[in-house]
């Protein structure tokens, strides 16, 4: 009986460790220097991140001043929001990246997409490992130059990186410690 209890506890610890690291990363669009706004260069921002299935994008913006439309490539290229795939308007929108492929987002406010408020994200298959500044990722679809002046590419920080993955890892580690403590009583 004691050996089967111990086996169950060991299995629970192993599962907690695996599940704690299986969460995707959460990326705040434009962070740390910007957000979903007219000042951020999204091609530069996205080029420093390898997005993977299981990650999520968080769009933060002033509600009413902007919105987020997920669109087709043709609508992205022409800045058309007339037939969006999805529409977000809360000012704090989370978009899960569930599968590999390229996703396209624009601001639907007239003139904003043409002014550069558009984002193309190439999502790779596999589990997220968070930002990897040492390995370059493919460039997203090119954007028209912006008239607002030069932008500086800023590598993602912990606030725009794998915050969800880190919290999940800590929860798994905490659960493993509790189970290990309980094992000493058996």
From TrEMBL:
Molecular-function annotations in GO: electron transfer activity; metal ion binding
CDD domains hit by this protein: Phytocyanin
Keywords (A to Z) from UniProt: Copper, Glycoprotein, Metal-binding, Signal
First and last residue of the signal peptide: 1-24
InterPro entries named in the record: BlueCu_1_BS (IPR028871), Cupredoxin (IPR008972), Phytocyanin-like (IPR039391), Phytocyanin_dom (IPR003245)
GO (cellular component) term, any one: plasma membrane
Gene3D superfamilies hit by this protein: Cupredoxins - blue copper proteins
Domain Phytocyanin as annotated: residue spans: 25-125
Protein name: Phytocyanin domain-containing protein
Native organism: Eragrostis curvula
């Amino acid at each position: 009986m004691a050996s089967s209890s111990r086996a169950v506890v060991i299995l629970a610890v192993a599962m907690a460790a695996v599940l704690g690291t299986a969460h995707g990363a959460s990326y705040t669009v434009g962070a740390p220097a910007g957000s979903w706004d007219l000042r951020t260069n999204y091609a530069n921002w996205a080029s420093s991140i390898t997005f993977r299935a299981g990650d999520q994008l968080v769009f933060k913006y002033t509600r009413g001043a902007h919105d987020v439309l997920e669109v087709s490539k043709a609508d992205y290229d022409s800045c058309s929001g007339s037939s969006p795939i999805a529409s977000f308007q809360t000012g704090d929108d989370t978009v899960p990246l569930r599968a590999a492929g390229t996703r396209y987002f624009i601001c639907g406010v007239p003139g904003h997409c043409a002014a550069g408020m558009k984002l193309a994200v190439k999502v790779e298959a596999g589990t997220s490992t968070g930002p990897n500044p040492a390995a370059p990722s493919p460039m997203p679809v090119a954007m028209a130059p912006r008239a607002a002046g030069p932008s500086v590419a800023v590598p993602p920080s912990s606030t725009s990186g794998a915050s969800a993955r880190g919290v999940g890892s800590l929860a798994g580690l905490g659960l493993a410690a509790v189970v290990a403590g309980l094992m000493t009583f058996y």
